[in-house]
Specification:
35% of the residues lie in helices and 12% in strands. With 221 residues, the protein is of the alpha/beta class. The radius of gyration is 16 Å and the shape is globular. It starts with a strand and ends with a helix. 38% of the residues are buried.
Amino acid sequence: MAVLYLIAGMGLDERCFSRLLPLLNWQGTVEFLPHLIPEHSREPLKNYVQRLRAQLPAEWDEPPTLMGMSLGGIIAAELAKLIPHQQLFLISTLKQASEVPLYFKILDKIPAHRILPATFSQKYGRKLAKFLGNFEPTYLNTVFDMIEQSDPRHFAWGRNTAINWIAPLTKPQNCFHIHGDKDHIFPARKIQADYWVKGGTHNLILERAEEIAQVINERIY
């Protein structure tokens, strides 16, 4: 039976898929891949993904499908290089070098983001939640709870990893990218999405779950 692996973004957990998952016409099993505790704040992404791969089966009866959002999309794209996969669904993320925003390139050269303490996400969780998207109060509280309960070590690692990621020059194989045209984390002007969610912000996986599910259901095989 085919497996769908889910990978959440930085500071988030399986709850970010809570609205989308019940709407998917997925006939196999679903497994959430929780964030690993990084070996240190600058652990190479390649090493991190190899550790993640080591936790998965050596082989599958059917190639799995991967789905990742935000930082989880970057991780999913790197994991897809290591395993045979049926499909790769990316949501609110980057997938190739041409999509990397200018401010990432600046922070790569002048790493001002490292001034922020690892506990920044917990201390300012509610402000971060509001910054990530426009939510109904219930969803805002869910995002706040995820950020507040996240491991600060993964936050410190995740921000470094996203900014320093050496993105591939071309689109990953078997990839379908869904993005919001109001995403301010990964600005739409640089993204080459396969499907645009009109008015969708960075956390459209919660805001626009019905629309995303319809798009994915039309493409799942």
